[in-house]
Description:
Blueprint: H1 7-59, H2 61-66, H3 69-77, E1 85-92, E2 97-101, E3 113-114, E4 118-119, E5 125-126, E6 129-132, E7 136-146, H4 147-152, E8 171-182, H5 184-234, H6 249-290, H7 296-311, E9 315-321, E10 327-335, E11 349-350, H8 355-362, E12 367-369, H9 380-388, E13 391-401, E14 404-414, H10 422-504, H11 511-540, E15 548-551, H12 552-562, H13 564-570, E16 573-577, E17 582-585, H14 587-603, E18 613-620, E19 624-631, H15 662-672, E20 677-681, E21 687-694, H16 702-708
Parallel strand pairs: 16-18
Antiparallel strand pairs: 1-2, 1-8, 3-6, 4-5, 6-7, 7-8, 9-10, 9-14, 10-11, 12-13, 13-14, 15-17, 18-19, 19-21, 20-21
Helix pairs in contact: 1-5, 5-6, 6-7, 6-10, 7-10, 10-11, 11-15, 12-14, 14-15
Amino acid sequence: MVFRKPGFGLVAKFSFLVSLPILIASLALGYGLVKFVEKTMRIGMRERGKGIARLVSSAAEYGILVGNREILNNVLRNMLKGEDVLYVSIRNISEETLYSYGEVVEGIPTSVMSDRPFIHEQGTEFNFRIAETELLVDVTCDVLTVRERRSREDIGLLQPDTNPAQRSGKTEKIGTLRIGLSKAAMMKYLRSAKLATAGLAAIITTLVILATVMLVRTMIKPIKRLAKAAGEVSQGNFDHPVEVKSQDEIGFLADSFNKMMTDLKESSGKLQYRLEIERLVATMSTDFINLPLDEIDDGINRALQAIGEFTSVNRSYIFLISRDGKRMDNAYEWCAEGVGPRIDKLRDIPAEAIPWWTNRHNRFELIHIPRIADLPSEANAENGITLSQDTGSTVMVPMIHGGTIVGFLGFDSTESENTWMEEDTALVRMVGEIFVNALERMRSEEMLQNRLEIEERITKELEAKTEELSKSNTELNSFVYTVSHDLKAPVVSLQGFSSLLMKDCKDSLDEMGRMYIDRILKNSERMGTLIEDLLELSRIGRMEGQAEPVSISDIVSNVADELATQLGEKGTKLEVKGDMPTLLCNRTRVSQIFANLIGNANKFMGEDNEAPTIEVGCEDQESYYRFYVKDNGIGIDEEYHEKIFQIFQRLDDIDTEGTGVGLAIVRKIVESLGGKIWVDSAKGQGTTMYFTMPKTMNVDNKAVEETAK
């Protein structure tokens, strides 16, 4: 910032503002004085003209009456010797010039100055007419006389009466007098007066300006000092206070400015300190964000050094608290030159060994001890630890993550006392948050790495187990198929020979023999059914046949027709609710699902069910269709909800037909189609069998169509 010093410019401005009115007043006063003198002289000139006209008129009265020019010359010769009389003209009543002196100026403007009448000595009135030019004053008046007097006096005694007041008679005009007076003397005097006035005004103005400048300079000096100090402040220099010499408003302003400068110096120092803190914290935060995982430990040590040197402490450190909060460990430490490290001596400290610190940290409180000797008596254990470290003062900030304390950040001043300001503790808190984030990031990445390694190991184990299980399932299916196929022929032979024996030897057998053969036939038939179910179960994984668009409504209708006899025997009503989708699937396998579920529902209706009902429906979910087969039969106890889907598992308290393989077949078919199956039932409250099929099987799905192609 460039500060422009006021200098003489301010003095000139103040001087101009003060001098201008004085100069104007001086000029106005001089002008008025000149005008007054001019007016006074003009009035004097007019009065002089009137006076001369009055004297000449009185003196020329007798000469005009007798018409004698010589008398007029003799009377007026000495009277009109003044330098300012330019001309005199006397005319009688007949406008005949009786006396002339000088050259009369004709054509004077008519803008004359009329004057009030002048009283003649004999009581008559002189009517003066005065005209002026730039060079002269022209006075014209009538010459009057008293007619009665002229008849009384003889020609030798024509002189004015010794007592004019005794004259009486009628006043009569006997002639005209015109006198011209020069203004040269007056103009010369006016010029001198103007020059004198101008000189006086100039002298006065100069003196006033000089006095004003000196006065303004005296007044401006404190302001200039203020301006200079303000310029220093604008450059960040607060060590130049303004010298206060007066007790007036400027002195008060200077005193206030000095106080403001002191406050600014303090505020500037705090602001600079705050900016350095923010810069340091921002640098740390940026460094830790971009710091690789394996460099975080070194980054923390560098940050401890930076913050320790910035705050002028001798030791900075981080204690980490175990997950259970029972132990703490000095994990990181920086020591100034000449200060011995303590990190190896402060490992694995039980939290109960320093209860005062532990309790305060658990309450997320900042611990600030400016003087270790002032530790409270309940901090005896802590006092022993700090004294062993030669610590004079300390400050410790809890490091919190997710509402749990994970450690604390501390700074010690050895062998000295140190009071931390609010800005310092705020810095420590921010740094603690940075360290917490860095440590938690390191922990999270380590946990993630461990988890990834575990998942990778589990994945490999699962892949191995899956491969082994797949191989076992293949071998098991092959074994089941082989065993079932191999058992089928003996069972068929057993059934055939038993039937022949019963047919051909029935009459030769007693009741007991016929009963044995009948059991053999029934068990062999059951064995045949079981073998067929096992063969069917082994074939499900291979899913013979191509996928094709299948209407679920048609499948349910076909199954209802196939099971019409069984449903009719128990009077079961089959209802279909909602719209059924058309899916791209194996018709035979989906038919097996509905046939098994509807058949089982009818089978377990119960003997005393007055209105057996089976409801088949479909619910459209976000990514799949959920089908259900609901009945109002005997229900299934919760302990059998999972067992009924296992092979050869049947309800122990129900004696009914079946091999215990049907629901196992249904489950395998549903899972092979990408769905799942479960049961919702309670004993005596009916049963609802749910199973799902993904919407990707929908024939309207283009991806499925492309897959089918």
